[in-house]
Amino acid sequence: MLLVRRRRGVSGRSxxxxxxxxxxxxxxxxxxxxxxTYTFLPWASAADRTPGVSHINPPHERYHAAVILGTGTRxxxxxxxxxxxxxxxxKHQHVTCTGVHAYAVDxxxxxxxxxxxxxx
Length: 120
Known about the structure:
Elements: E1 2-6, H1 12-30, E2 34-39, E3 65-70, H2 74-82, H3 84-91, E4 97-102
Antiparallel strand pairs: 1-3, 1-4, 2-3
């Protein structure tokens, strides 16, 4: 999982283009089995109405995108990252990004499990 910060002064459109049309496709071509790219809307206080919880983070601590990629093994992650396609995208990330933080996720658990419908 990658959490990405947008560089100050870079338009949202340019940032989204880098995430969705440069980095994402490079990871896909390199062999990521499961790939999801997300870009976040700008923070707005009206959208976060959680009583007793502050969602106001300093700008240097806000993330603007997430990229989730899945492979069968840790070795495959290393192969994806070392690919020429990903290297080409990474070479240009400094234009739109100030930080890319990588986290390994060993296991995910569904939060909501759907039960099959009962037929009457």
